[in-house]
Batch of 3 targets.
Target 1
Amino acid sequence: MVFNILTATTVILATILWVEIVRDSYHVLSHYWPPLYRLHIWHHRVFRPDLSPVSEEIYRKAHWYNDLPEALVMLTLSLLPGVILTVQNSPYSWVAWSGSIYTLTFLFGAIARGAGVPYADELTDLTHRQGDFTSLPAPWFVNRPYHWRHHFDNQKAYYCGTLTFVDKIMGTALSLKGKTIAVTGASGSLGLSLLKHLHLNGAKVIALTSQERILNIDIDDEEIPVKTLTWQVGKEAQLKDELDKIDILIINHGLNVHQGRSEAAIAQSYEVNTFSGWRLMELFFNTVQTNEDKVRKEVWVNTSEAEVNPAFSPLYELSKRTFGDLVTLRRLDAPCVVRKLILGPFKSNLNPIGVMSADWVAKQIVKGAKQDNRNIIVTINPMTFIAFPFKEFLQSLYFKIFTRSNQ
C-alpha cells in the first residue's frame, strides 16, 4: 500500500516536472527562434520596472499571443506520459495525466487574463504583481524578484516560470553581463583570476587592492588594464561611495600567518580575515535601498574550506571560521543575496603548496554563481561536500532559533 502511494506520488510529481521543463524550454526557444519571438515580445512590452502594465490592451494581447500558445504546447506535450503508461498497461497510467490537469490551470488562466476577467491577474499572475519586494530572489522556486530580473536585468537569462531547475542546468540562474563587480584581494592569484573570468562573462570589473599600481588581466595574451582602487584594512568606510555603485562585492582578501601564534599574529589575523570583511559587508548592506538593489546586489564571501576542515594554520582557521559564522548569522536577514565561497587548497602566495590552480578555481566559482548556488564549494576533498552543507544547515537553524531580527 505504502509502495503504491509513493509510486503514484512520484509519477504525479514527475509529470508536473515534465510540463515545467516543457514550459521553460518553450520560453528559451522563444528568445532564439524569430517566429516565436514575435509572439513572445508582447510579454516583454507589457510591464514597466515597477511591474505596472503599460496598458490594459497590451496586457491582454500579451496573453493571447504568448501565454496561450505556451499553455497549448504544454498541454499537448503533457499527454505523452499518460499515453506512454497507458500503452504499457501501467497501473499508474491514471495518475500520469496529472501534468495535463496541472497545465489546464495555465491554459484557463491565460484565457481569463486575455479576456479581461476581473481579478484573474491577481489570482493567476503572481510573479507580475506590483509592490515592494518582501523577499530576495529564491534559489529553487521562481518568485517576483527572480522573475523581475528576466524583464529588467537580462532577457537572455532567468527563463524559468515556477522551478529554477532549467536555469541552473543552463547557467542562466544569474546573469553577470553588465554588472559592476568589485573584488578585494585583487592582486592575488585568485583575485586576478576572478577579475579575468568575470570580465569574460560580460561584467565590469573593479580591483580593490592595497597595492599602489594599476592591475591588468591577461585575455588571450593581451594585457587589459582594470579599474583599480587602492584601500587599506581598517579604512573600509572610505569605500562607501564606491560601494554605492557596485552590484556585486566579492570579499576575497586574507592573511595567513602560518604557524604564528603571537599577540600580533592573533590581532592581525582577526583584523584582516574577520573584521575587515565583516565591516565591508555591513557597509555594502547599507547601499541596498530599492527593489532593484535587492535583486541586483550581492555579496560573495571567500570564507574558505577552513570553515569545516583543518588548514594546518590554526589562526587562519580560527579567523576564517569566525568570519564564516558571522556571514551565516547575517545572511538570515541580509538585504541582498550572500554567497559563500568554500574553497580548497589552490596555489597562491597564501598557500604556495596548493594543488588546484587559481584560474580553474575562479572559473568554477563563476560557474557556480551562474547556477545560483548560494554555497559554492570548490575543492578536491569530497568530505567537504558533505560536512559543509550539514554544518551550515545546523548552524543557520541554531542562529535562527536563538537570535532575533530587528527588521
Target 2
Amino acid sequence: MKPIFSKTPPLGLRLFLAIIASIALILSDGQTNSMIKARSFMETAVGGLYYLANTPRTVLDNVSENLVDTNKLQIENKVLKEQLREKNADLLLLDQLKVENQRLRLLLNSPLRTDEYKKIGEILTAETDRYRQQVVINQGKNDGAYVGQPVIDEKGVIGQIISVGEQTSRVLLITDVTHAIPVQVLRNDVRMIASGTGRSDELSLDNVPRSVDIEKGDLLVTSGLGGRFPEGYPVAVVQNVSRDGSNYFAMISAKPLASIERLRYVLLVWANEDMHQAKVSSPEDVRNTVQQRLANQEKGVDTKKALVTNSGENKETINTDDVPSPDNLPEMNNNDQIDPELKEHRDED
C-alpha cells in the first residue's frame, strides 16, 4: 500500500541543508546593511518575548512587596526620608561648588568638561555559557542607546552594547571570548589589553612581557585608549601572575570587579560627544581620575546620579558680569602687609 503523502527528506539531507544555511548566515552577518537592518528588526520582534518571559518574575516581585510588614515599610520610609534630606542638602552645596568651579575655569581660560550622563537599565535575560557571555537590557533605540555604548555597574565596567532594538539592547560582557578592553595598572600606569575567557570570574592579560612590573592585587582601570570606554573606571583585580622562564610572556589572570553572575541593574554611560576627537589622556591623568572617584565613594557620594550639562545651560548658569575683571577687583587695604621689595618698586613707579 502506497502512502498518501510523499516521504519527507532524509534526516541527513535536512541536517546538511541546515548546516549550509547556518554557514551562509554566519558569513553574511554584519557584512551588508540589509543584514544589519534584519538583525535590528529581529531584535525588536523578539523584544516582546523577553518582556513576556520576564512577566512572572515581575508579578512575584509585586506580590512579595505587598506582603511586606507595614512596620518595616514605615521604618524604611523614615530612614529614606532622612537620607533624602541629607542628599538634598549635599546637592545644594554641589550646585554652588559647580557654579564656582565654572567661574574659576573661566578665569583660568580652561575648557569645561561635559559631565557624563548615566541611565539605569534592567536585565531582561542573560546568556552566560562558555562560548557566549551576553545579556539583554530594557533600554533600546527609543531610549537613546547605541551600538558601542559602554555599560557599567556600581563596581566597575560590564561591557558594551553590540545590538540595538527599539526597546531592548544586547550587551557583550567583558568576559566574552570575543571581547577585549584596553586597561592600565593603577599603581604604575602600565597599559595592556584584558581579554575575556568565557568565564564570568576571569579575564586574561595577553602578550605581557615577563619583565613588566605587575603584581597580584593590582587594580586595573580603563585607560581611555580607542575612545570607547571613558578613562578611570575600575575593571578587574590581578589574581594570578606566572612567569615561566621558557616563555617570553607572562601568564596573568584577573578577576572582574563587576558582579557578572548576579547582574540585575546596569548603568548606560553617555560620554562626551567629542570623546573620539579628544586627545588621549596621559596615565597620570587617569590615575588622578580614579583616585578622585575612589575618594568620592568613600565619602558616600552617590555616583549613580549624574548631571547633564550642555552649552545652553552653561550660558544660563554663568553670567560674565559676575566674573571679576581687573577693573572691579577689590582694592587692597592700606593696613595689609606688603612685601618690602614690592613696596620699593611701587614707590619708584
Target 3
Amino acid sequence: MNKYLFNTITGGILLVSFVVCLIFSSFINNAYAIDISRSETEKTSVATGRTFHNKDELLQLAGFPGENEKAVAAREIRVIPGGQSIGIKLNTFGVLVVGHHLVETAGGKQSPGEKAGIRVGDMITEINGKRIEKMQDISAFVQRAGQEAEPLQMTIRRNQKMVHTELQPLKDKNEQSFKIGLYIRDSASGIGTLTFVEPRSQKYGALGHVIADADTKKPIIVQGGEIVKSKVTSIEKGRNGNPGEKLAQFSTGQKKLGDIKRNSPYGIFGRLNEPLSDNLAKKSYPVALSHEVKEGPAKILTVINGEKVEWYDIEIVSTIPQKYPATKGMVLKVTDKRLLDKTGGIVQGMSGSPIIQNGKIIGAVTHVFVNDPTSGYGVHIEWMLNEAGISLTETEKSEAS
C-alpha cells in the first residue's frame, strides 16, 4: 500500500485530517492531518442599548422561548456520543477539475480545457450525453474524439448551474496520445472524529464542518462514500502559530462502518451498517439546544492513542444562543493537563469530538485558533442533528426511525 505525506495548507485550521486522492494514487494507508479551510479568531460583542433584567428577556430577543415557555421545547431525544477516530473516503459527484495544464502539440503549447472555458472547481458530469462518475470514464471519450477530430460535448456543473461547452482534445507530440489539458480527480480521503449516533436509526454525524477540496477550497459535492475505523499512531504537538495534528492509519481493506450521504457546513452524515461495539457506545445522552449551553466546565471525547476513546476536561468560554443554524456557536478552551501535555490543546484530526456538559451532548469541536492551540470553536449539536435528519421538537416530523 502506498503512503503519502499530506501537505499542510497555511492559515486557519479546520480540524479534519483530509487529503485528495490524486489521479495516480490509491487510497491512503497512512493519513496525516491537514487543514482544509481558513479559520479566524473573532471577537463578538452585543450593543443593543438595552439592559436585560432576566434570562427570559434575552432569550426572547434572540428568538427563543423563555425557560417557562414550551412552544418549541426540544423533545426527549437521546444520542450516543462518538469520539472514535474514523477514516473517510469520499466519491465526488462527477469528476472535479482542480487545475489546467499545457499540452505540447506540434503547433505549440495549449490547454484545450482552458480554451473551452472550463474552470478550476467545475464538475464534469457528462460527456457526449453519457454520465461521468470516475476519471476512467473520460479516457475513452478523449482518445476517440481526438482520432476522429470531433469535439467533446461537455456538461459542467458550476456553482449549482449546468454549463455546456465543446472541448477538442489535442495530441501530445511527446506521448502520442490525446489530452484535454485538465487536472482532475474523482475521490478524496482523510481522517476525522465521529460525533454521535442515533441508536434507533443508526444515523450518525461527524466532523462538525464541511469537507472542502484542498486545491479549489470549495465544498466537495458527494456522490457516496464510506467511513471506516482508523488508528491514531502518533501526535504532533501544537504550539502558538503551528497547530498540531493527529497521525492515523486506515486502509481500503478495512470493514466499512457506514456510508456517507451528505457533506454540509455542519459535517458529514450517513448511517452506520451496525451498532458500534466499544464500551462507550452503549450509553446514550440527551441533547442540549444552543440556549441551554452554559459557560463553564465541560468534557470532550476523543482519541489520542490507538483506538481508545477517553474523556478530557475543557471550559466553555463563551456560547451564543442561535435562532438559525451557524457553524461557530461557542468558544472552548482545553483545561485537561493530560491532553495539554500530549497534544498542546486542540489538534487537527480532532474535528467532530463530541462535547458533553451537565449530562447532555451540546456540540462538537470544529476549529483551533492558530495563535492559541489550547482554544477553538465548537458547533452546537442541534444543527448537526438537523443535518442528519433527526427531529428536535415536538412539532417537527421525526425522521429518525
